[in-house]
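> Could you send the TBC domain containing protein prediction when you get a chance?

Sure thing. Input:
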Amino acid sequence: MTDCSLRAQVWKILLRVPAVDVAQYAALVGKGAFKGRDSEEYKQIRKDVGRTGFRKNPAFTKRVPDAKLSRVLNALLHSCESEGIGYVQGLNIVASVFLYVMPEIDAFFTLRQFITHHCPLYYKKTQKGEKKEPPKEGEDNHSRSWAVDAALYLLDQCLQVVDPGLHHHLKHFTTHLYLYTQYIYSFNAIVPLESGTSLDEVVKLWDFMFAFGAHLNILFTVARVIKAREEILHKKDKNINVPQLIGNFDADIIIDLTVHFVRLIPLELYQKLVLHTTEELDFSS
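Output:
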């Protein structure tokens, strides 16, 4: 039995993680690099592991060395290949937060449970139909999952409900929703490196998310945008990059705003929020 903190134990309970299997994890690790060291997936993992955030945090670098993060990610892909789960940028960040909170084996099984049962469509290798819009200039060439396209659409709808003035203002700029993709894939575990934000703030936000649902990821992002409202409204540059304006990460403020937003969101829209991580929804109407 592994030695988990109280928070780690609570996360495992909230996510309904089955018993960890040391032998199973060892066998997956023994398979080595996913699809071999020359595979695109393995190359991307190596690249992303080397640039995972929070490296200025001594506690993070001690708990989450590159080798450990790489092992978990490769083992995850081996484990989930038959379920159609693939690697996307941002998965390294999600895995690193679990590793920050709990021992490696527990982190692997908790990450696997979260990915496969609470937000599987975010990481499915195939997506439903055509994208709602073509990639824009500057967008990374990693295809988004259908659920993330749905999340970006829902984010836009929620912002329009909770702050129509800011939503209208942003329509006048060449800001595109795809800029929020990194926040969706990482479940908002991204903060500006210069902000000095502690990873513990992200962990606190995830406490709330695991208690009430992964769908709140979208409202967390809306809250972070609205937190930067005044700075956004004063920007005149047509190429305004809203994610770059998201400042210090304060979990308590984000949670308070999210709770407020839940009261404002129409029931039909909120139901789509709840379902979009696990069910393919029809947005044609």
